[in-house]
């Protein structure tokens, strides 16, 4: 092993604002410190960091030219209860899956994520 994964980092125009969205979505806690360029939250032992990017451009989903580089899967018990809450937090629905095991959303600055559930 060369190293261990420390954090998943998302570029965004306002780290504090996007961190607040994910704190509420995941029930995460914000770590002390940070500034207006870098914020870290922890959800179930996983660090998710937000880094200011002044020239941020959101990924496009779906995009046949490959602008999306990754997405997060968020496990929920009941998507019909979870969906109204994520929309209230500022997400928007991008795609419902045909096999009914996940739905794709965008966070407030355009990063795609999925609500997934066990069927």
TrEMBL record:
Phylogenetic lineage: Bacteria, Bacillati, Actinomycetota, Actinomycetes, Pseudonocardiales
Q: Write down the species.
A: Lentzea atacamensis
Superkingdom to which the source organism belongs: Bacteria
**PANTHER family assigned:** CONSERVED PROTEIN (PTHR35908:SF1), HYPOTHETICAL FUSION PROTEIN (PTHR35908)
**Ranges of residues in domain VOC:** 4-118
- The protein depicted here goes by the name VOC domain-containing protein
Cite the InterPro entries for this sequence. Glyas_Bleomycin-R_OHBP_Dase (IPR029068), Glyoxalase_6 (IPR041581), VOC_core (IPR037523)
Q: Which PROSITE patterns does the annotation name?
A: VOC (PS51819)
A Pfam short name: Glyoxalase_6
């Amino acid at each position: 092993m060369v190293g261990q994964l420390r954090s998943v980092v998302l570029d965004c125009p306002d780290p504090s604002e996007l961190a607040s969205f994910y704190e509420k979505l995941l029930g995460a806690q914000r770590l002390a410190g940070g500034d207006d360029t870098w914020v870290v939250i922890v959800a179930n032992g996983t660090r998710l960091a937000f880094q200011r990017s002044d020239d941020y451009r959101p990924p496009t989903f779906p995009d046949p030219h490959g602008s999306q580089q990754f997405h997060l899967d968020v496990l929920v018990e009941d998507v019909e209860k979870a969906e109204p809450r994520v929309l209230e937090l500022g997400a928007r629905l991008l795609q419902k899956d045909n096999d009914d095991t996940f739905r794709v959303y965008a966070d407030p600055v355009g990063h795609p994520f999925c609500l997934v559930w066990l069927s």
